[in-house]
Backbone:
């Protein structure tokens, strides 16, 4: 029998979260962002739950190909555009829309032989300083693209650096709006945080929104708000089982480095989950975890294949947790109790994005 650790991908929760994104911007079309193999969930496993989107946005050509193999005939957008000339052939063949963010990509397009002109999303660097043309260069890039026979419609896109925080998006929106004022074409600006926190702002109203993380049941602005407050549901549950128990006396320590020491007699469970499964090694004693749906904490250091959990809260509820008990590392327990991935990420000093993307290959996935 394989180790009892498994990740569950919840189709209903994906559908629910997508509906929430639509409700947040009812007049916009929705790109479901499925980069990084659908934030670690697996493109094939999220497809059913997200096929109600208007398009899929990603950055890996192999993933775009997989979407087409699933039978998706609607829009697919490459968020970073092409990396080399021959990628354009795949764009032509698979009808992929692509971002153009630098002169080199325009050069490649100008040399590309295609029967059908390409749909382009021209990217502005409005302050993020990652990809895109600065406002002073944006219009000349647009003009150059617009003259190419290889180019069909040009849409305008930018990305926010601070949609989740106090700085907000006002400056970037002002820059984007001013620079693009009299240019034709559809607009796309918002990621999840922009959409949830700023979609009511009329300046933000755009033709396409691009939610990623919120679709996967993580709050983009945690801990300011959590998924319950945004009415989002976890789409990935990482579950395992207790494979051993130990009864500790006061003074006993747990795991490598003896970093946890019991100050009274207590019972612990050993869980078949470690950092080789993608559970963060940085999680300290006290990281939340569910045992048979009861919230408790980890004890001591995370090792490669195991972690220890405190069974005291289970004992207190009168429930005999022990060998074989279900452990939910994040997501939803079988009894419906939710442990948001954001709570675990915070304990590890990171964000939900990183945890869901890092579940390792040795974890079996099940769609439910
Ligand atoms: C990843 C990404 C998104 C989605 O961001 P979330 O924070 O996950 O909602 C949107 N747009 C671009 C360009 C991205 O790279």
Residues:
């Amino acid at each position: 029998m394989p180790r009892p650790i498994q990740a569950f991908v919840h189709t209903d929760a994906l559908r629910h979260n997508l509906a929430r994104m639509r409700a947040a911007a009812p007049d916009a079309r929705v790109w479901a962002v499925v980069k990084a193999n659908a934030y670690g969930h697996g493109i094939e496993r999220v497809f059913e739950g997200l096929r109600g989107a208007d398009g899929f946005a990603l950055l890996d050509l192999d993933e775009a190909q997989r979407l087409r193999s699933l039978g998706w005939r609607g829009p697919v957008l490459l968020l970073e555009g092409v990396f080399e000339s021959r990628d354009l052939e795949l764009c032509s063949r698979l009808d992929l829309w692509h971002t153009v963010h630098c002169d080199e990509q325009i050069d490649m397009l100008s040399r590309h032989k295609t029967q059908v002109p390409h749909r382009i999303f021209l990217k502005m660097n409005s302050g993020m300083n990652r990809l895109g043309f600065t406002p002073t260069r944006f219009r000349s890039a647009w003009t150059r693209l617009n003259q190419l026979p290889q180019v069909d419609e040009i849409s305008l896109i930018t990305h926010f650096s601070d949609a989740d925080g106090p700085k907000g998006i006002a400056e970037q929106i002002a820059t984007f709006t001013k620079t693009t004022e009299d240019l034709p074409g559809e607009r796309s600006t918002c990621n999840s945080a922009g959409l949830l926190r700023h979609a009511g702002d009329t300046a933000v109203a755009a033709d396409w929104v691009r939610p990623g993380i919120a679709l996967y049941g993580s709050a983009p602005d945690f801990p300011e708000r959590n998924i319950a407050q945004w009415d989002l549901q976890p789409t990935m549950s990482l579950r395992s089982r207790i494979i051993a128990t130990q009864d500790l006396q006061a003074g006993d320590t747990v795991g490598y480095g003896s970093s946890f020491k019991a100050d009274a007699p207590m019972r612990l469970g050993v869980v078949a989950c470690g950092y080789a499964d993608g559970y963060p090694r940085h999680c300290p004693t006290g990281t939340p975890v569910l045992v048979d749906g009861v919230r408790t904490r980890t004890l001591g250091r995370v090792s490669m294949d195991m972690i220890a959990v405190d069974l005291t809260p289970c004992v207190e509820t009168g429930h005999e947790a022990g060998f074989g008990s279900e452990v939910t590392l994040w997501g939803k327990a079988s009894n419906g109790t939710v442990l948001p991935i954001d709570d675990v990420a915070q304990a590890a000093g990171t964000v939900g994005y990183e945890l869901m993307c890092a579940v390792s290959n040795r974890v079996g996935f099940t769609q439910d």
About this structure: Residues 236-367 form a domain with the Lyase, Ornithine Decarboxylase; Chain A, domain 1 fold (CATH 2.40.37.10). The chain has a mean pLDDT of 96. The first strand starts at residue 6 and ends at 9.
